[in-house]
Write a structure and sequence with these properties.
This protein is of the alpha+beta class and about 190 residues long. It has 3 helices and 14 strands.
C-alpha cells in the first residue's frame, strides 16, 4: 500500500536533500511509547522531480508538493484498513485535519471551511494546523465515508492543501498501479 504525504517531508526545502527512509507507525502513542499496529520502514519515497528541481533552484513550487511512501509489504493495511476515498472538495465544504504536533507528538484535530477562490490546485481552509501536520489529509465525511480532498502542505495563514486534481490523482494512481503490479509479479517491466 501507499501512503500520501507532502513532498517536503521527503525532500526538504531547507536542507535541499532527500530522506533516506521513512518509518510509518500508525496510531503511535508518544506518551506510552506504544505502536499497536507495529511499524514499517520504507526507502521507496516518490515525489515529482519538478519538486526537487524547484527546491534546488531556491523556489519550492507548492504545486508539486505531493509525495508517496510505498510500504515494502502490504500486510499492515489488513490491520488498520483503508481510510479514504479521494475527491476534489466543494466550496465552503466542512473539512477536518488531524495530525501530530511536532514537538510532543500529541494528536490534534481541527475543522473548518474550504475556500476554492484562489486556484484549482491549492485549496485554502480555516482549520487550525500545527508544525508537524504537513502531509496529513484534509478530509470530510460524506454519507458515512471518509473522503480526502487534499494533502496539507502549508500552515501559514491561510492554511493550504494540494488538492486532488486530475493531474495529482494521475500521479498517485500511476505509482499505486506500478507497485501493485510489482507485488503480484516481481518481474514487472517498469517501462510497461
Amino acid at each position: 500500500k501507499c501512503i500520501l504525504t507532502c513532498a517536503h517531508n521527503l525532500f526538504h526545502p531547507r536542507l535541499a536533500s532527500k530522506s533516506d527512509w521513512v518509518r510509518v507507525i500508525p496510531a503511535y502513542s508518544h506518551a506510552t511509547n506504544t505502536a499497536p499496529y507495529g511499524y514499517k520502514d520504507s526507502t521507496i519515497l516518490i515525489y515529482p522531480m519538478k519538486w526537487e528541481e524547484s527546491v534546488l533552484n531556491g523556489t519550492p513550487d507548492q504545486y508539486y508538493d505531493i509525495g508517496v511512501v510505498v510500504l515494502p509489504s502490504y500486510d499492515m493495511h489488513k490491520r488498520i484498513g483503508t481510510l479514504f476515498r479521494l475527491k476534489y472538495p466543494s466550496q465552503h465544504e466542512l473539512i477536518f485535519n488531524t495530525g501530530f504536533r511536532q514537538h510532543d507528538y500529541s494528536f490534534w484535530y481541527s475543522s473548518g471551511k474550504v475556500d476554492l477562490t484562489n486556484s484549482d490546485e491549492l485549496i485554502t481552509y480555516d482549520a487550525d494546523t500545527l508544525t508537524g501536520h504537513s502531509g496529513s489529509p484534509i478530509y470530510s465525511v460524506q454519507a458515512g465515508h471518509y473522503v480526502a480532498h487534499a494533502v496539507h502542505i502549508n500552515g501559514k495563514c491561510p492554511n493550504k492543501g494540494l488538492a486532488f486534481t486530475n493531474d495529482i490523482l494521475t500521479f498517485i494512481y500511476k505509482i499505486v498501479n506500478y507497485y501493485e503490479k510489482r507485488v503480484s509479479n516481481p518481474n514487472t517491466d517498469p517501462n510497461a
